[in-house]
């Protein structure tokens, strides 16, 4: 049965939000590590709660084309088994108000693809229509920003909207563009379909409008049809409580970030590329997790060089080594910590700037010479608060590290060389100017 998202703020606790998905049989995925009593309370709430307010928006899918020439295809020939799948899906869509029969000058073809679990999925091939669509440039959230906001969160409620796009209607003028044909007729979408290039941005606009207040408060993080509700403890969460979540291809647990095994598995099982397109696809998979791989661009360079224009495809020893190394590094289950926005960087800057200014009073342009001297000061919060190194505390005087002295010597040599080159450039420029003026 088609699901409908219902949203309401609890009067008893303004920090708790209930999302009811109307299905014939309620199914809950509540973390097994949750105490039994808490799990029972959550299940009872989800089963019995009936929201009395449904938040709606005026967001609709609007389609504009750059070419008025209609795009029309004859029905695609499908195997008999796939015809039954298509007919069943169309009947379900009509029953749920997703599509309707129509006459239209536009018509795309239907195809059946396989999901990850092997089950069939009916799709509309909008590729030619996408070429003439005016793009919706509403921005999608930056995934790294979303992952950074997961800091200090211990309990998560995750929602993956069922048929999320179908919550957004298609305006009446745009419906003919969404038309598709089968052996049994022509239909158009009343709800936003999958496959149109403008749909992700439109859906993100819809989700941001629905959850705007909650996003501002830092309670909800929406990315397309993936939604995470953040909580610092069980009392702030009321459904699908989990200590660990898989979100946007990452696993977040105890303030640490891991690449999702389901995603890295596709990298590990990726066959050796035979074409430039396959190399590009592999780099797209690994590039998504480049933050987990030190010096990713250096390791991947032999492969990325194959993508250059007019470069012949030659998967040789260097490319094979790069390919295997990227796989190996992702197989090691790399871990990242998440930054904490607790003001430490700002506090360090407020300490460093006046100190450097004082130390470089004689020559403010050489403030960088004194940076190594501050390294010992910034070892810990305690030392940062007193601006004193452990050696100074014990002996009352500061020592110089041999490495720091060598760094200062190199910096002085580079600065001297730069000054000499600058003077030569000035003289050459002056001579050239005078020569032109004559």
Automatic annotation (TrEMBL):
Its EC number is 2.7.7.49. PROSITE patterns: INTEGRASE, RT_POL. Residues 292-398 form the Integrase catalytic domain. GO terms for molecular function: RNA-directed DNA polymerase activity. Residues 94-287 form the Reverse transcriptase domain. GO terms for biological process: DNA integration. Gene3D superfamilies: 3.30.70.270, HIV Type 1 Reverse Transcriptase, subunit A, domain 1 (3.10.10.10). PANTHER family: PROTEIN CBG26694, PROTEIN NYNRIN-LIKE. This is RNA-directed DNA polymerase. It comes from Trichonephila clavipes.
């Amino acid at each position: 049965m088609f699901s409908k998202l219902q949203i309401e703020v609890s009067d008893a606790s303004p920090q708790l939000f209930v999302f009811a998905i109307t299905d014939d049989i309620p199914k809950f995925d509540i973390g097994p590590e949750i105490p039994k009593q808490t799990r029972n309370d959550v299940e009872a709430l989800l089963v019995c709660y009936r929201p009395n307010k449904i938040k709606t928006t005026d967001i609709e899918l609007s389609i504009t084309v750059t070419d008025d020439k209609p795009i029309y295809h004859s029905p695609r020939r499908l195997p008999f088994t796939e015809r039954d799948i298509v007919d069943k899906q169309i009947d379900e869509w009509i029953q749920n108000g997703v599509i309707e029969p129509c006459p239209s000058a536009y018509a795309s073809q239907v195809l059946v693809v396989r999901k990850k679990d092997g089950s069939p999925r009916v799709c509309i091939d909008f590729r030619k229509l996408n070429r003439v669509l005016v793009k919706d440039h509403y921005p999608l959230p930056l995934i790294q920003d979303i992952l950074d906001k997961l800091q200090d969160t211990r309990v998560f409620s995750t929602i993956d909207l069922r048929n999320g796009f179908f919550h957004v209607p298609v305006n009446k003028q745009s419906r003919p563009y969404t038309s598709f044909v089968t052996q049994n007729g022509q239909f158009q979408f009343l709800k936003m379909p999958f496959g149109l290039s403008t749909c992700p941005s439109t859906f993100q606009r819809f989700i941001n409008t629905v959850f705007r207040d909650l996003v501002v408060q830092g309670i909800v993080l929406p990315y397309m049809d993936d939604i995470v509700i953040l909580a610092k403890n069980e009392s702030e969460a009321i459904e699908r409580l989990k200590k660990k979540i898989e979100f946007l291809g990452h696993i977040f647990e105890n303030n640490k970030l891991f690449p999702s095994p389901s995603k890295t598995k596709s990298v590990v099982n990726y066959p050796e590329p035979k074409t430039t397109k396959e190399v590009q696809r592999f780099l797209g998979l690994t590039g998504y997790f480049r933050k987990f791989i030190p010096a990713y661009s250096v390791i991947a360079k032999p492969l990325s060089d194959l993508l250059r224009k007019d470069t012949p495809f030659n998967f040789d020893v260097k490319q094979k080594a790069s390919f295997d190394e990227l796989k190996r590094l992702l197989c090691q289950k790399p871990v990242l910590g998440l930054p904490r926005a607790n003001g430490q960087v700002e506090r360090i800057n407020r300490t460093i700037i006046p100190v450097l200014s004082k130390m470089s009073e004689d020559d403010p342009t050489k403030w960088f010479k004194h940076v190594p001297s501050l390294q010992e000061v910034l070892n810990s919060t305690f030392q940062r608060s007193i601006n004193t190194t452990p050696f100074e505390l014990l002996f009352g005087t500061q020592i110089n590290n041999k490495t720091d002295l060598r760094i200062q010597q190199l910096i002085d040599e580079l600065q001297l060389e730069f000054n000499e080159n600058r003077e030569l450039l000035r003289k050459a420029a002056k001579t050239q100017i005078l020569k032109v003026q004559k």
